[in-house]
Amino acid sequence: MSPVAELPPRLKASVRTRALLLASLAFAFYLGFIALTVYRSHH
Amino acid sequence: MAHDNAIDTAHHDDHHGQPPSGIGRWLFATNHKDIGTMYLVFSLIMFFVGGAMAMVIRAELFKPGLQLVDPGFFNQMTTMHALVMIFGAVMPAFVGLANWMIPLQIGAPDMALPRMNNFSFWIMPFAFTILLSSLFVPGGAPAGGWTMYPPLFLQGGNYVAMAIFAVHLMGASSIMGSINVIVTIMNMRAPGMNLLKMPLFCWSWLITAYLLIAVMPVLAGAVTMLLTDHYFGTSFFNAAGGGDPLMFEHVFWFFGHPEVYIMILPAFGIISEILPTFSRKPLFGATSMIYAIASIAFLSFIVWGHHMFVDGMPLAAQVFFMMSTMLIAVPTGVKVFNWTATMWRGSLSFEPPMLFAISFLFLFTIGGFSGVMLAIVPVDFQYNQTYFVVAHFHYVLVPGAVFAIMAAVYYWLPKWTGTMYSMGLAKTHFWLSTIFVNVLFFPQHFLGLAGMPRRIPDYAVQFSDWNMVSSIGAFGFGLSQILFVAVVIQCARGGRVKASAEVWDGAAPTGLEWTLPSPAPYHSFSVAPEIK
User: Fold this and answer.
1) Which residues lie closer than 8 Å to B90 by C-beta, 6 or more apart?
2) Contact between B179 and A23 using a beta-carbon 8 Å cutoff
């Protein structure tokens, strides 16, 4: 298999942090819009 | 541009390993080039699947009266054609191009998250197997339009769960792809490549990736609520239970309008790469191009109401959405004029990528103009749900997004394969596509203005002539695309003329990819180039 190049540790940490932040942002949008719909249907 | 001084590290990489052989190379791929190729091949297959559905639609509409298929199946075809083309053809094609080109353009060895890259590709064939399988279950495939409006969508059979699951999978794939693009661009740029030195294609994708992360979860939220309404007794969009069906339209189009720009911003990036190369001039107003893309992306979040003018909304909201929509013409105009100014007094040559780019410039602008017409509230009242809308968005998506994808393939194919393709065949493909795409879609403006509704299998006899012309254009356009496949396969199997590293006279100053030999080595930029 083609090897996945290992990134230097600091870069790897930065990549992971950024990826997790973006994924959390996406999940927040998902829940946020469901919550907004619930709110709107009660007001 | 600043890439002139890039150090060519390519030939140091040649001995760094060859692609693994066998099916494992593709199943367990982590190489951005392999994953890019898989995305592009997948997208091409979906282009023909969606195209076949379009042929069914145009064959049925060739003459008035019900000819070939029953109306229920016709509605399944219109719905599935849209879903397949949007999520299966156009979006994966741009992701494929991003995978191939972003690491090459920023001087990175690969995407930042190669295993996630593999995952986000391999979700797609499963998602589309599920979606397309719904054609064979009792009740058939979704038939209420790609917008999936309740209550109509929820009155269907088994397809409800299948389509919703497929949309969730596509969304997860897109979000992972976007995270990868953003992290790659933010973390993996070669030393010295600051953001303003980055090629326009990468810029357009960076902004598109943020749009995707913001709106794909909104679509996922909307379809999750459809799912619970249908199977778990909730009433998000069910008026009888205290919900509001119109709310779905708001949530859907909050996703749907940025989605339109997700399908066109990378095209803008591609055109901004190709025009300078074949004009032998730097891109006119490169920085303003970046601001224009960012402005369009921002505006895309505040215009969703223009899809719903006739659904009932306060006058103030109508005016707001009309004005905000028209504002988009300003940054779009900046781009069109900058592209024109790039060509002005350039030393132009007309190879296939340039021909497609110029065609894009003219024909996308037609789609843009009809968009401004549709933004006007009282005018939209007249045009809404007619073929004018169909003509508008097909001009934006076919000679817009699809032509840009073809331009990109013709531009970078020699870099990918190492050989030149048949210029004669590619130019024939271009001329046939450009002529037939206009024969196909231009008459639809007349049909719409005359009042022909969209999404119908039969129509009044006064619409016969232009429908026949449009169908002839569709068959011609569909057949012409076989030439595209022929050109690509011929080139991939190894053409007669080897491609140089620069490939196109005038390409070298536009990006780091041209510092690599053709074909680009399997592992490239394992030592980062220095940009001064």
Assistant:
1) B43, B263, B397, B401, B402, B405
2) yes
Chain B residue numbers touching A43 (CB-CB < 8 A): none
* Residues 245-264 (B) with a CB less than 8 A from some CB of A: 247, 251, 254
Taken in order A29, B97, B54, B257, the sign of the CA dihedral is positive
Q: What's the pLDDT band for B70 if we cut at 50, 70, 90?
A: very high
Say what the pLDDT of residue B17 is.
65
Q: Would you state the structure tokens that stand for residue B313, as one six-digit string? A: 């909304």
Q: Are B50 and B133 in contact (CB under 8 A)?
A: no
Contacts 24+ apart (CB under 8 A), B496-501: B496/B419, B497/B419, B497/B420, B498/B418, B498/B419, B498/B420, B499/B414, B499/B415, B499/B417, B499/B418, B499/B419, B499/B420, B501/B10
Query: In Å, how far is B128's CA from the nearest CA of chain A?
Result: 22
CB hemisphere CA count around B353 (13 angstroms): 26
Write down the ipTM of this complex. 0.90
pLDDT of residue B528: 86
The percent of residues above 70 in pLDDT, for chain B, comes to 97
* pLDDT above 90: residue B32: yes
Who has greater pLDDT, B508 or B316? B316
The answer to whether the Cα torsion of A17, A18, A21, A26 is positive or negative is: negative
Contact flag A41-B214 (C-beta cutoff 8 Å):
no
